[in-house]
Amino acid sequence: MDNMLEGKVALVTGGGRGIGAAVALRLAREGADVVLTFQQDERSADETVRRIRATGGRATAVRADSADPAAMVAAVDRAAGRSGRLDVLVNNAGTFLLGPLEELGLDAFEQTIAVNVRAPFVASQAAVRHMPAGGRIVNIGSNMAERAVFPGFSLYATSKTALIGLTKSLGRELGPRSITVNLVNPGPTDTDLNPADGPDAATITGFTALGRYAEPDDVAATVAFLAGPRAAYITGATVNVDGGFTI
Ligand SMILES: NC(=O)c1ccc[n+]([C@@H]2O[C@H](COP(=O)([O-])OP(=O)(O)OC[C@H]3O[C@@H](n4cnc5c(N)ncnc54)[C@H](OP(=O)(O)O)[C@@H]3O)[C@@H](O)[C@H]2O)c1
């Protein structure tokens, strides 16, 4: 353990698998008591908790649909209830609905905005009620907010671009309380959402400078840095962890 987050309480939305699980594992390894949310995949959430506990860390999984604002607030309050504070919020859970403009219905629009935009807003609002000076909010966006290389991403890119504005404005607003707010934009990362052996993987890889997909832990390392004390003077920033996809 690096112990950079010893004594801290962290909430990671969508922390049961993929990038969120890697973040939960990293934060726990650095000493944080981690609460992770899941929506459907209870087995993966339980497995991530088991892995954290197996190495001496502390973690709990709670079911919370990010599309439900009341569930988001309840998850935040539950995390804060563990020791009366919430030090780190990672807004990671994301939905990935793609398609041609004419085929994306209002239900897809509403689900995408609810999970990718409203949930980070609501969770941040609830979290700062419990967040002391030194608190950290890290949003997970996407490289697709910066570079539109494929058709069909209009809705997803719109939602992830909104996080740039949310991150900057909350960084400004919460700065006087010594709470930082930053955005990590992953590029292609090997998860269920975008498997490195998927049908379009070779094309996607071709857009990176490094010529490979990220592992979830590549993203988690940056999130953990931003969540820790060494990032105290970084706020409102967007950090691309995308292997050069957007250069
Ligand atoms: N992988 C990439 O290439 C890539 C690139 C750029 C950005 N990102 C972003 O990184 C984040 C994590 O993506 P990932 O690749 O790790 O995806 P993933 O493997 O598909 O995992 C998605 C996670 O989000 C959770 N989730 C989805 N909808 C939810 C809801 N309504 N309520 C609560 N949790 C919900 C899932 O929970 P369950 O396990 O319960 O289903 C799961 O934990 C997302 O915000 C995504 O947009 C990913």
TrEMBL record:
<dbReference type="InterPro" id="IPR020904">
    <property type="entry name" value="Sc_DH/Rdtase_CS"/>
</dbReference>
<dbReference type="InterPro" id="IPR057326">
    <property type="entry name" value="KR_dom"/>
</dbReference>
<dbReference type="Pfam" id="PF13561">
    <property type="entry name" value="adh_short_C2"/>
</dbReference>
<feature type="domain" description="Ketoreductase">
    <location>
        <begin position="8"/>
        <end position="207"/>
    </location>
</feature>
<dbReference type="InterPro" id="IPR002347">
    <property type="entry name" value="SDR_fam"/>
</dbReference>
<comment type="similarity">
    <text>Belongs to the short-chain dehydrogenases/reductases (SDR) family.</text>
</comment>
<dbReference type="GO" id="GO:0016491">
    <property type="term" value="F:oxidoreductase activity"/>
</dbReference>
<protein>
    <submittedName>
        <fullName>3-oxoacyl-[acyl-carrier protein] reductase</fullName>
    </submittedName>
</protein>
<keyword id="KW-0560">Oxidoreductase</keyword>
<dbReference type="InterPro" id="IPR036291">
    <property type="entry name" value="NAD(P)-bd_dom_sf"/>
</dbReference>
